[in-house]
From TrEMBL:
Keywords from the UniProt entry: Hydrolase, Iron, Metal-binding, Protein biosynthesis
Binding note for cofactor: Binds 1 Fe(2+) ion.
UniProt source species: Aquimarina algicola
Name of the protein in question: Peptide deformylase
Essential cofactor(s): Fe(2+)
Single GO biological process annotation from the record: translation
UniProt: Fe cation binding residues: C105, H147, H151
First-tier enzyme category under EC: hydrolase
UniProt GO MF annotations: metal ion binding; peptide deformylase activity
Catalysed conversion reaction: N-terminal N-formyl-L-methionyl-[peptide] + H2O = N-terminal L-methionyl-[peptide] + formate
Amino acid sequence: MIFPIVAYGDPVLKKKAKNIDKEYKNLSELIENMFETMYNAHGVGLAAPQIGLPIRLFIVDAEPFSEDEELSEEEQQKLKGFKKVFINPTIVEETGEEWAFTEGCLSIPDIREDVFRNETIKIHYFDENFEEYTEVYDGLSARVIQHEYDHIEGILFTDKLSSLKKRLIKGKLANISKGKINPDYRMRFPLQKKTR
């Protein structure tokens, strides 16, 4: 089932999400539907708040980046088959140089901006079978995880922009929350006027 993606302006995107346990209702079906929703919107990551659920769960599949010819062959290899589920994650450590990369977000269509993030992260999480892991990621895989992790912390990539950049995109963000855009996937807009 493909969920509508919650648009910028919805309060769920600014809420810190709650942990879940393995008894969470229909968890495997939810994860399957999240992947279907993400692929339908051509995304590489999707967090539960983006479908209206304030829970600490996100998915990533960075395989599309493995075909980016601007990346080193080593980075391309790392991203091949990089498909994961993160439940109740905690970023334990962020290290390395901060570097910029142009990010976008399914909840904020048509806006792409450079965001600075640390190069390496150490993350503790559970997978879809509630197996526990602590792993280290770097480069683009770390960035995709950091972006989705921010979602469950109630942070959007636009929150990380300079005040000048924020002012420049203010009108675009207002239009997104009012539904005055035409993405090629289903969305739920918080400020759209209800038609009778």
